[in-house]
Amino acid sequence: MNLDQFRGPVLSLFRMVAGLMFLLHGAAALFGVFGGIQGTGAAVEFGLWPGWWAALIQLACGILVLLGLFTRPSATLASGSMAYAYFVVHQPQGLLPLLNGGELSAMYCWAFLLIAVLGPGTWAVDPLIRRLRDGSAPQPVPPRPG
């Protein structure tokens, strides 16, 4: 069995799960849903730096990555924002993520970097748009005669 045949679909599923989880974090912080900020039920104050902007990036990039639309730039921005979160918020509390509470930031940073480098996978809007633009979209199969 050639496991390479699963590369595109598995990468797509990984991208979709990461995007969904990221957008849920953003929605929780922006709108106070799903328990809000750290389970308090509260939302981040509008425009507050860096929390509100980070949540906006999480929501927007999460949606785009989930759909596989503008995947590489969105994943790059998401990865960078999580690197910023790790080094500015968590790392001053201690070097190791396990000790400073930065496990999620570190994992999201590396997950989105992986997506940015490897691309969206098979099931995404980006490759569909590319095929449509290049005129290589799948053609409908004509019906069989009687």
- The tally of helices reads 6
Q: What is the element string, with H for helices and E for strands? A: HHHHHH
Helix content: 55-70%
Record field, number of beta strands:
0
Total number of distinct structural domains: 1
Write the layout of secondary structure elements.
Elements (H helix, E strand, L loop, with lengths): L6 H25 L19 H17 L3 H20 L6 H4 L2 H16 L6 H10 L12
Helix pairs in contact: 1-2, 1-5, 2-3, 3-5
Q: Could you explain how this protein is built, in words?
A:
With 146 residues, the chain is an all-alpha fold. Helix content is 63%, strand content 0%. The chain has helices at residues 7-31, 51-67, 71-90, 97-100, 103-118, 125-134. Helix 1 (7-31) runs antiparallel to helix 2 (51-67), helix 1 crosses helix 5 and helix 2 packs antiparallel against helix 3. The longest helix has 25 residues, at 7-31. The radius of gyration is 19 Å and the shape is elongated.
